[in-house]
Model the fold of this input.
Amino acid sequence: MKLSAIIATILSWFALVFIISWISGRKSDNSTFFSGKRNQPWYIVAFAMIGSAMSGVTFVSVPGMVAASAFGYMQMALGFIAGQAVIAFVLVPLFYRMNVISIYSYLEQRFGLSSYRTGAWCFFISKLLGAAVRLFLVCISLQLMLFGPLGLPFVLNVAVCIAVLLLYTYRGGVKSVIWIDFLKTICMVSAIVLSIVFIARASGLDLGSLCRGIRDSGMSRMFYFDDPKHPQYFFKQFFGGLFTVVAMTGLDQDMMQRSLACRNFRDAQKNVITSSLLQTVVIFLFLVLGVLLYDFAGANGIEAAGDSLFPAVATSGKLPIVVGVFFVAGLIACSYAAGGSALTALTTSFTLDILHADLKGEEKLSKTRKTVHIAMALALGATIVIFNYLNNTSAIDAVYKLASYTYGPILGMFAFGILTRRQVRDRLVPVVAITAPALCLVLAHNSERWFNGYQFSYELLIVNALLTFLGLIVCSSGAKKSQCSGR
Done:
């Protein structure tokens, strides 16, 4: 794929983003930024959320993973559906009934200020590092495809990335994020479908032979019930998916900000259920594409696997240029849209949960929010540069693992608050939130030796939440809280 085509694709996407941002950001205020004025159509939000849970990492990683784990990821996707049902029928009514902007304010009303800040800080650390990793990976791709061939440094690459995110979210906030996620979903689904169609054509496959080829492939195994110790074991994946989506969607300010932008909780429920079913279809298509990519690469002498498989095939020149164009558009859309939504959520959480700027009046809130937005963008940029300086894949893996450790205490706190009527000693909650992940770290490093070869997978999040729950029981009493604590 020629450099000029890559530049044209990226510039076209930027132009569309800024047009959408300008339209959605007109007459914006704090309510528009934080909650989209809670008047967004649920079907628009649902379509946007198909892609909102998928970053550029997902875009290139899921097709590449079928060689190692076949269609085993679908086990986790089934857990996602169950988890989304919990979000729709438990968390969404709760948050709408409380009329929250930041979902972590629930913890203050239920337990107290220390619990509230603990939840907010857990989210803040996880989201900052996770968003930085995702943006780092797309910056690496852009450095290889665009900035490197032009002789431009990585720091400029990062500066452009952060400037784009800042500009399109600065005014419209979550309203802009929803509509740009809508565009992202179009680009992503188009890239998947076009790639499947053109690879099938190039391989001489019609629909029937395509389905038979996928069915008979050694990479299409979906269910694993034979070895409970293996990370791919069905119940590990299913329940890991269930609790992961509850924690990282239902208890994540970034993701729930979209659902809370719907007109009422019933519209939000429709959005959550519809988007979860559509996301499952998209995940399945990603895995189908992965089988085709490996077969096509093997037949055409393309030496690539894993995360490099999709980029290598799409830009190899052995497929029509439209595949490469939509791949670049899909990668950029996924990565920048995920970064923009993370930046908006970080600004919301830091402004409301940590600085409590909503108590200072509308004018001061607006000024604080804009200052924090710029600060969060700079923090993201600095973290990306640090990752590049370290240039250590194990450091990146550690950051992804950190997300399961930081969301565990949040899941445990919300579960304790919803499932019990006990009141905790608020000042001890931060101790519990630190102790539980620390114990999980010890378990993860010693599980094979202690538990006869057992390896923890995504279920470590469940253990983390359970330890938090038990810790809160120890720090609690049966006394009911007489009133919500003030700030």
